[in-house]
UniProtKB/TrEMBL annotation:
This is Translation initiation factor eIF-2B subunit epsilon-like. It holds the Pfam family W2. It comes from Elysia marginata. GO terms for molecular function: guanyl-nucleotide exchange factor activity; translation initiation factor activity; translation initiation factor binding. SUPFAM superfamilies: ARM repeat. SMART domains: eIF5C (SM00515). Keywords: Initiation factor, Protein biosynthesis. One of its GO terms (cellular component) is eukaryotic translation initiation factor 2B complex.
Length: 196
């Protein structure tokens, strides 16, 4: 019986995700106000009885799929999809920020992006760009990204741990840039204080 419930939950999560992408596509094409998009997402959450963490896990990926659907219909490459994703995340940042208010929810969102990248091989080399777009749109904080990056799963040889290690390696260029930018900012602050 427990196995059947697990399969049902997976099917519900898949159905929720498909409906979420369809809702965002309709909202985008009909130019629905963002506060109404939030209401529709919340209605889906209740209709499918999914926990808020599942919504947060799916949301950035659903916007990625929206960008993919918009771009790939014209036969565009991954780079065009990412350009569309950047534009979409900038435009819909209030919707994303409504759900990603704290470090824990941002970590859940990063986990969702990681799952998307693992399932979609063509996007793996683009993980740094995706994180950068969400960072630039003030959806993900530097603290959350660094917490995710520095996290070590408790079971070192598990599939989850191996995926996390792989994702960290993919994200390394962006994380290195963040660290460099932070140290340069700290040095400038020190220089400003010394000059006074």
């Amino acid at each position: 019986m427990a196995g059947t419930q697990g399969i049902d939950r997976v099917q519900i999560a898949d159905d929720f995700y498909k409906e979420l992408v369809a809702t965002l596509a309709r909202a985008d094409s009909e130019r629905i106000k963002q506060e109404n998009i939030i209401l529709e997402i919340n209605s889906l959450k209740h209709a499918f009885q999914v926990p808020i963490n599942e919504v947060i896990h799916c949301l950035p990926c659903s916007f990625l799929d929206l960008a993919r659907n918009k771009s790939e219909s014209s036969g565009a490459a991954v780079s065009a999809v990412l350009t569309a994703f950047n534009s979409i995340t900038a435009h819909y940042s209030p919707v994303l920020c409504n759900y990603m208010k704290d470090s824990e929810s941002q970590l859940t969102a990063i986990s969702g992006i990681g799952d998307f990248v693992i399932k979609n091989e063509a996007y793996r080399p683009r993980l740094p760009q995706m994180l950068n777009f969400l960072y630039d749109a003030d959806i993900l904080s530097e603290t959350s990204i660094m917490t995710w990056y520095n996290h070590t799963p408790s079971t070192a040889n598990s599939n989850k741990a191996l995926c996390h290690t792989y994702l960290k390696k993919l994200a390394e260029p962006f994380v290195s840039w963040l660290q460099t930018a932070e140290s340069e900012s700290s040095e400038e602050d020190d220089d400003d204080q010394d000059g006074n």
